[in-house]
Amino acid sequence: MAYKILIVDDEVDIVEALKKRILREGYEAVVAFDGEEALKKIKEDNPDVVILDLILPKLNGFEVLEEIRKNYNDKWRPVIILSVKGDLESVKKGYNLEAELYLTKPCAIENILHGIKTMISLIPQRKTD
Asked: Cα–Cα distance between 13 and 5 in angstroms, integer?
């Protein structure tokens, strides 16, 4: 079974580059281009890891993260924030909302893949039946 990664970003170039690399690594990739679509994809596709931008149309990334933690607690679902917002206040807010990792753009794709692999390696230890 391939792990499913949800990429949430409104920048098509970033989404396509990440999707291409994630598929090459052997994972499934699901994409969303705004906050509302992200929540719909979580409900429909049940991804294992979410890569989440903060600056999004409709619902911002913080709002999406709050909804994930409030309404989608059926399993441990690690969220990696990937944003241009690198200020201390945003980083603190991301971690306070229980993001597992906060990366700032521009970011080497290897760092993103390392974050995904780390989160996936922790899934067996975090399973709650």
From this structure: 17
For residue 99, how far is the Cα from the chain centroid? 9
Using alpha carbons, select from 59, 66, 45, 70 the residue that is nearest to residue 10: 59
pLDDT tens-digit series, residues 104-122: 999 999 999 999 999 999 9
What lies within 8 Å, CB to CB, of 27 at 6+ separation is 2, 3, 4, 5, 116
CB 102 within 8 A of CB 53: no
Domain boundaries defined on the chain: 4-123
Architecture of domain 4-123: 3-Layer(aba) Sandwich (3.40)
Virtual torsion, Cα 102, 108, 110, 112, nearest 10 deg: 30
